[in-house]
């Protein structure tokens, strides 16, 4: 009965929105955008409700016909066959409906800020971080997303100490948020003469890109320092003070940006990263306040726990959160098979959230 009331509420709200959008009252641009988005978001759910209720009604009719002793024998047999087929479909329709009813993460529709950092393992960790960065870039390109490198600190051998990128496109944060955590690699380094397998790690953090309306940053809360950009080994990149370091005084968060020759562009990029970090910080504080379960949710940005291992000798990638192993390491690092891991994580997350509300 609770489910039926919830479905009635959704259907009624969808109808009301349709009438408002088609009505004679002039809507402001802001109202039009707000109502249109809500209507579009509810439409797939309303269609699922209609499919489920239509199938349920048909099942009741077929059940009554199959049990009607006055009905023709052939008709009863036909009704029994159709009822079995329909009964097999109903659980899937109900499952789809419940998934659509799950509360949405408000950040899922946002673009993503990706941060990749070399962890333990020296140069080998930096080389692995570079491989992860390429993996996410190829994955983004394969999905038609925009990949913009905001900053990168490289080593002399092609490794990456730290890199930050902005990934834009439909579902970018919703899918990439599951990548946050410690990624471990097991392989024989190029510099290893003895052929021994080494273990090193890199950390990945995925934050939702925050708009100005999401996070209000006061000028008085910022300390902005400018300095001269420098490359690896201290080599001068330019001769002007174009690099920018922004310190958010209330939280102590610091963001530096020096990739652009323009101080204005560096400041804009640094503010984008700072805004994303503040937004994620606020999200995590709210999550922690709600419940301990929520704090442990996959994709929370907690980097303290190893989430995945990339084993080169065995051509194996294992995601430890869902115990999923793929023997196609090259395809994963090439971005082609990453979806298989992410799909598993999405399904696991949905299953756990469904168990909490059922």
Produce a short descriptive summary:
This protein has helices at 2-22, 29-67, 73-101, 122-142, 172-176, 263-290, 292-295, 329-333, 338-357; strands spanning 112-118, 146-154, 160-168, 181-187, 198-208, 222-227, 243-248, 253-257, 306-311, 316-319, 324-326.
Descriptive key words:
single chain; 358 residues; alpha+beta; eight-stranded mixed beta sheet; 11 strands
- Low-confidence regions: 232-237, 290-304
Mean pLDDT over the full residue set: 83
Strand content: 15-25%
Based on DSSP secondary structure assignment, what is the total number of beta strands? 11
Radius of gyration: 26 Å
Given helix and strand content, the structural type is alpha+beta
Note the main sheet. Answer: 8 strands, mixed
Order of SSEs, N→C?
HHHEHEEHEEEEEHHEEEHH
Structural commentary:
With 358 residues, the chain is an alpha+beta fold. It contains 9 helices and 11 strands. The protein has an 8-stranded mixed beta sheet with strand order 2-3-1-5-4-9-10-11. A 3-stranded antiparallel beta sheet has the order 6-7-8, with helices on one face. A hairpin with a 4-residue loop joins strand 10 and strand 11. Helix 1 (2-22) packs across helix 2 and helix 2 runs antiparallel to helix 3. The longest helix has 39 residues, at 29-67.
